[in-house]
Specification:
Keywords (chains A, B, C, D): DNA-binding, Transcription, Transcription regulation
Number of strands of chain A: 0
Largest sheet of chain A: none
Radius of gyration of chain A: 18 Å
CATH topology of the largest domain in chain A: Tetracycline Repressor, domain 2
Oligomer: homotetramer
Protein name (chains A, B, C, D): TetR/AcrR family transcriptional regulator
Largest interface: A-B, 38 and 37 residues
Order of helices and strands of chain A: HHHHHHHHH
CATH architecture of the largest domain in chain A: Orthogonal Bundle
CATH superfamily of the largest domain in chain A: Tetracycline Repressor, domain 2
Number of domains of chain A: 2
Distance between the termini of chain A: 62 Å
Mean pLDDT of chain A: 86
Structural class of chain A: mainly alpha
Low-confidence stretches of chain A: none
GO molecular function (chains A, B, C, D): DNA-binding transcription factor activity; transcription cis-regulatory region binding
DNA sequence: GATGAATGAGGATTCATTCAT
DNA sequence: AATGAATGAATCCTCATTCAT
């Protein structure tokens, strides 16, 4: 019985997270918690029961996203062609960004202070692995460091999203960055 | 008398703009209009008389900034060493960004929608000139286009600011971008 | 089985009362029912099953306290020195008050309206007995009535608690009241 | 013109204070600020413009009351019969209390923390004067101190109000306290 | 009977904007 | 034109109470 209830709660938690991701992606982190609740189909109190603070909700979203990205990076590192894996991941992330307003804002720390140290480090490690392998394959210069990759990843993701780059501009811009990694 | 008053009004307009730039730079675009008024030494009503909407005020600031940047770009294009002018300008803008919260937010469209088409085009033209000259000097690959430069400029400015890059990371990251422009 | 359950229920009821007394004593009547539940080690629903309303819970606590006070008064009336018993009881109650936030608030009706007619009458009877014996011993003027004693008891208890009297002020103040009873 | 406006503002400020006094007197300090605004006939924002915090509003009320009491005490000290002035003032305050819920709560510090050190000291000084004169006139024992008078004043005021004493009980109770002062 | 998740009204506070002076 | 007081919608958050499990 308790298990049942917890299942309900978990379902709600996930609905809230999904709703929040959508709402914040559309309207930015300034969107109201009430709108998240409405989109999730729950009462406002339920949102605050699961995430005692709006900030907690934002933090949960970002942590989730970062974790997902790290997993994707790991998958690419294991399976794919080392020469292309890093660039493929980079491209993928930037494309994704175009669909998520919050991510960029929050990765950036835009006004909201969300502490995501842990998940961010994990992502950097995964990216580091991709980088090392690309370097071993000779696809990236040896003196490029993980924090530089992360920095350009964040920069292009934000810009792609917020600046409303079209796919063509996005590709051309990434090409330049990738050329910078190579030469 | 009317002329007198208009002079007053113009002075007020400028004080408000200056105050707004300062306040929004420090506190971000979420800072209150009242704080701008206080810093400008005028009453809140005066701010709204000059800028009927907070958004108008934000727009005016960004337009001003973009215009200033365009002028700087032009100055460099006329005077400086074509091989270095583009990179110097690029570096300068990114460094500046670290001191201005609003700029990045607004260039990005963070929450607020400010229409700055004209001044942005003007800046792009100036940057285009810098680019052309750098290409003629052989410092940048020929197929790099102005909108790509603008895109990376915006991206690194935002990221440098919001991500809190330290000067070292900033330099290393720009080096990669510049390498991408070259080869 | 039903009997078993009722034993559980009774135990829960008492744990809740104890927890409520502690919580409300510390945080005042504004403390949340949830905190009471937590301290009692039961779920919030259980609290509301036993006391359908927060007010009911508060009422139960006050009734319990009044009953306890009446018992103490009775004990003093039977055993102690009639000359001192009333003053000892009075002093004791006021001292106690300093440790109980709710009591004063509730005796006072602070925001919450709790009906405690019966237990209050019983306390007044006990106090009446103490008074009568003190009068017979010549320690208190004959025209002092029980409701006056009760009134001053409530007054000094509340004030001692809420006003944060230090022990010295408390003693000096009580001395004046006792002098009023005597002469 | 500015003066006009300020007149409006002052009028509003006073309406708000009056409304607040009434509302908090009826419903206790837990009454909502919105109700105060409604009773004052202003929008909620106006209340917060004048008193940035609910607490500030409560503080203002209490300070005002204490000041008023101090003035009354001073007036009695100057004009009246020293033998009766202190008791008259004491009686008056307790009678007044019956009409004011907040006062008692706040003097007591009931939940809300309002800092009224200054006005309270001033009142104590005024009461001290009344006391000294009563002592010089031989109406009060010499070893009674001002803080004891204040303590009993607060105690009886609260109790009279919150306990709902009827006039008869009030008078009889005060007689006991006064007897304590004398003997 | 117990559990604890969900509800949703209520409350304090902020702030862009309007408007009387 | 400037002033700054007033407005009131919007927002975050709390908590008594209900109800499905």
């Amino acid at each position: 019985m308790t298990a049942q209830l917890r299942a309900d709660a978990r379902r709600n938690r996930e609905r809230i997270l999904a709703a929040a991701e959508a709402v914040f992606a559309e309207r930015g982190a300034a969107a109201s918690t009430e709108e998240v609740a409405a989109r999730a189909g729950v009462a406002i109190g339920t949102v605050f029961r699961h995430f005692p603070t709006k900030n907690d909700l934002l933090g949960a979203i970002v942590k989730g996203l970062l974790a997902r990205l790290a997993e994707e990076a790991d998958a690419l590192a294991e399976g794919g062609d080392p020469e292309k894996a890093l660039f493929a991941f980079f491209t993928h992330v930037v494309e994704e960004a175009a669909a998520r307003k919050t991510v960029a804002e929050l990765l950036a720390g835009g006004g909201v202070d969300v502490r995501v140290g842990k998940p961010l480090e994990r992502l950097q490690e995964s990216v580091g692995t991709l980088l090392r392998r690309a370097q071993q394959a000779g696809a990236v210069r040896d003196d490029v460091r993980p924090d530089e990759v992360m920095a350009l990843l964040a920069a292009t993701s934000q810009a792609a999203l917020l600046g409303g780059w079209d796919p063509d501009l996005r590709n051309r811009t990434l090409k330049i960055v990738f050329a910078g990694f190579r030469a």
